[in-house]
Write a structure and sequence with these properties.
single chain; alpha+beta; Thermophilic metalloprotease-like; 23% helix
Amino acid sequence: MSQYWYEAVDTGHKPGRLVPLVRTATTLVERTLRVQPGQQICIAADTEVSPLLVWTIAGAVAAAGGVPSVVTFEANARPGMDVPAPVGAALLAADAIVACVSRSISFAKAIQEAYLVRRIPYVVMSNATEDMLMRGAATADVDVVRDISHRTRDALNRGTTVRVTTPHGTDVTFDTAGRPWYAYSSFFEDGATAAVFPGGEVNTCPNEHSGEGRIVIDSFMMEIGRPATPISWELREGRIVSIEGGEEARRLERLLAEHGDDNSRWIGELSVGTNYAARTIGSALEDKQVYGTCHIALGTGVSAPDGLYKRRYTSALHLDGVMTRPTVTVDGVEVVRDGEILAAPRPAVGIAAAGGAAAGSNRSAT
């Protein structure tokens, strides 16, 4: 039996959670979605997400004058899988979509058509739990996170040769010519029709054949969890040629062998976390946003949210790995130094919150 909301959420014994959840849901509706009277908002939920969380969001939509619809489906076994056809039809009929799911559906065909082709606003809330919308990243000032994200994006876009190093052994370079970085900070940014809530990252899809070097995942690996022994990837011409480490590395190899495909070993995303209140808790949605971390994904690549570029490869998987204390340079100029974003220093109010750690789910987000 899954521990997702019986053990980790346990709403039946914690009814007081409704107050902070309403506050967060109101921020989502008013600041991210900016719901207008009569708008049809479709909330996609799966069977491993807390019903209290889903219906609190629906209630906030209704309070703003919108028309909420909740479509629930059996939780996918892996991130990146498609959704049932009736769910996809409901999503494509909406004015805006909120994906409140235990594993990412961002690469489902209906979602891709919705926000990339039909330009239907899409909010990613993969891996959301009640705890995550009461504490940590969700408590950050969204305007401060947006400012940090914009400053980070602008600094990263000042060149095209990106190098990432970490104390754990990462030393990898990428080319981002024609692949600008985009900010995801709880708002629809830069002409995008996709937003992450709670937000806090700046990402790109590097040119697929450009990656060279070693990537060492020390903080979190999607579908694997928090590794006791760092997981090391050797990268040649943008493709993972070997995976080394302890038991977690072997589990990742088995996952790729059993559920991956020919494109699962390409690098599909490079990102810097920008949420000063985010915690390392073993959950992709929050761990990826921790201020000053870096995450790199294998498998399906991200596309530009404003349509400027499209990824070259799609896969059955999209799996993020998070690294701590990175130093990131662009054309030889430091943008991040040992986990501190030079153009956007960490706010003093966020130091305690960002450093916290708690037990959490290992399910996935994008």
